[in-house]
Amino acid sequence: MHLVQILLPRSDNAGEPFAKEDFDRVKDELANTFKGVTAYFRTPAEGVWREGKESDMDEIVIFEVMTEEVDLPDWRRRRAELERRFRQDEIIIRYLPMAFGLKVQTPPGLGFATLLPELNCI
């Protein structure tokens, strides 16, 4: 099983917010393809990156789906489509394997943790 995360900007490069319908469309497409989707809308994360002396910042929305196999050609197609729709040079889609039933020591009352050994970008 793999967890796939899609990081989308809340606004375009001119600072204009994308419409709720743009994100609803992504959510619906993912829900129709996978067994479910989780979308983090209410608390957008902030991304800051530097290029030389300049820095940029984005607020992002994160979508997550779980899938047995990661079909890289399909995800590359999806990424290109999202880059076009959200007018971005690059959209980050990353995936990581999930290990279920792997027991690790945790503090009392917290149950068992799931190990996520590595992160990959599409």
List the helices and strands and how they pair.
Layout: E1 2-9, H1 20-33, E2 38-51, E3 54-67, H2 72-85, E4 92-97, E5 120-121
Antiparallel strand pairs: 1-3, 1-4, 2-3, 4-5
Please explain how this structure is put together.
By secondary structure, the chain is of the alpha+beta class. Helices cover 23% and strands 36% of the residues. It has a five-stranded antiparallel β-sheet, covered by helices on one side.
The global form is globular
- As residue ranges, the low-confidence spans are 109-117
State the distance separating the first and last CA atoms. Answer: 16 Å
Strand order of the largest sheet: 2-3-1-4-5
- Helix amount, in percent? 10-25%
Tell me the strand percentage band.
35-45%
What composes the largest sheet? 5 strands, antiparallel
Number of DSSP-assigned strands: 5
How confident is the prediction overall: mean pLDDT? 81
Order of helices and strands: EHEEHEE
Structural class, from helix and strand content?
alpha+beta
* Total helical elements: 2
Write down the Rg: 16 Å
